[in-house]
Write a structure and sequence with these properties.
Layout (H helix, E strand, L loop, with lengths): L15 H4 L7 E2 L11 H13 L9 H15 L8 E4 L2 H11 L6 E4 L6 H8 L3 E4 L3 E3 L2 E3 L2 H6 L7 E5 L11 H13 L3 E5 L21 H4 L2 E5 L13 E4 L3 H11 L8 H13 L1 H23 L5 E2 L7 E5 L8 H7 L2 E2 L1 E2 L8 E5 L4 H15 L1
Parallel strand pairs: 1-13, 3-4, 3-7, 7-8, 8-9
Antiparallel strand pairs: 2-10, 5-6, 9-10, 11-12, 12-15, 14-15
The structure holds pyridoxal-5'-phosphate.
């Protein structure tokens, strides 16, 4: 038995994922955290830090910055500099700060639904105008609508909130797609906030993550990249993320928007991030092997069901399922009544869809899939 098969009881730990269905027989496959223990290297680094017993304000550790620089080089062949890194207590914070720091009131912020819900909320929270260019679903794949991106009316200081690997569709955009995107953004003077939180979770072995800003200096100069160890190493509750902003003017505007509002990063977040990026690569390889099988099982069992269709998940532990043919008014509620809790596609700008999180021990996933099969058969 793999350690990932071990079912850890999260009930009573105030886990967001499990609290939603407290005292109900619903298997929660919704919010994007995994039901696995974090890497042992992370757990022991945290224990050691806790044993020190003094938890005062803490600076970003020098070794963590060096480790992130090495990680970008080794994982993505992307050479970044220390002063480009800005530490954040959460990635959604980064999205909202980016929105406030680019352009002004009523400037355009482009989003491409279906998309992780905070992308749809951030423009309005920043008093910007949202411009929606839905992804297109063709030949079983979700792709960007470049024609619309090239022609849609936008303000002078437009901003694009990009997500790659994409949540919820699990797409990993190719180099060709990224180049096409960057050409349009350069032509139209669009600044990009690129959320790459799922970048370590590429499941297809013939695909790789390419940070948008690593393509060339011109696109790097107009890109705010957001990354975090939180999804990969299952440490979302420790709140530690970072922005990489090569352009000094953009970086200063971002830091100014943070001032007095964004708190320090939790010191345990720093500790976990360092142990994750520096010491947990073997664990990550095992995790990816485990998730690949979970993904294959999910795709096989869901695609054989009448009324549901699933697109191939290239990255992430999230599967995007079209449930419109079931003709249920609210598919999420329908599956909850059958004992499985999905994320509701409506929150991602796509009613009729549901998102399934397969980042859990296989016995739990298989039990949930059996419930889904029973409900739709
Ligand atoms: C694309 C994306 N961005 C950001 C986040 C959340 O980041 P944080 O919890 O650090 O705010 C998630 C979590 O699911 C996500 O999928």
């Amino acid at each position: 038995m793999s350690d990932f098969d071990r079912v850890i009881d999260r009930k009573g730990t105030y886990a967001y994922k499990w609290e939603k269905y407290r005292n109900l027989d619903v298997i929660p496959l919704w919010v994007a955290d995994m039901d696995f223990a974090s890497p042992p290297q992370v757990v022991s680094a945290l224990k050691e830090r806790i044993d020190h017993a003094v938890f005062g304000y803490t600076k970003d550790p020098e070794e963590l910055n060096t480790t992130v620089i090495e990680y970008c080089k080794n994982s993505f062949d992307w050479a970044i500099e220390k002063q480009w890194i800005i530490w954040l207590p959460g990635l959604v914070t980064g999205i909202n700060i980016a929105c406030r720091s680019v352009g002004e009131r009523n400037d355009s912020v482009i989003t491409m639904p279906p998309i992780y819900p905070p992308f749809l909320e951030a423009p309005q929270l920043s008093k910007r105008d949202q411009v929606s260019i839905p992804l297109k679903h063709t030949q079983g794949q979700w792709i960007m609508d470049f024609d619309s991106l090239a022609t849609v009316p936008v303000s002078k200081n437009a901003h694009f909130l990009f997500c790659n690997p994409q949540n919820p569709t699990g797409r990993v955009y190719t180099k060709e797609e990224l180049l096409a995107l960057s050409e349009i953004c350069m032509d139209r003077n669009i600044i990009v906030c690129s959320d790459e939180i799922h970048c370590d979770l590429v499941l297809d072995t013939d695909k790789k993550h390419i940070p948008l800003a690593s393509l060339n200096e011109t696109i790097a100069d107009r890109t705010i990249t957001l990354m975090a160890p939180s999804k990969t190493y299952n440490i979302a509750g420790l709140g530690c993320s970072f922005a990489i902003i090569p352009n000094r003017k953009l970086r200063i505007a971002f830091q100014r928007a943070m001032k007095g509002i964004v708190p320090h990063v939790n010191l345990l977040g720093y500790t976990a991030a360092l142990a994750a990026y520096r010491d947990s690569q073997e664990w990550l390889a095992d995790l990816l092997s485990y998730l690949r099988i979970n993904r294959d099982i999910t795709e096989e069992r869901i695609s054989s069901l009448l009324g549901l269709s699933i697109t191939h998940v290239e990255a992430t532990y999230l599967a995007w399922i079209d449930a419109r043919s079931l003709q249920k008014e609210n598919p999420t509620r329908f599956f909850e009544e059958a004992g499985v809790g999905f994320s509701d596609g409506a929150d991602f700008g796509a009613p009729g869809y549901v998102r399934l999180n397969f980042g859990c021990p296989r016995p739990l996933l298989e039990k949930a899939l059996s419930r889904i099969e029973k409900a739709v058969s």
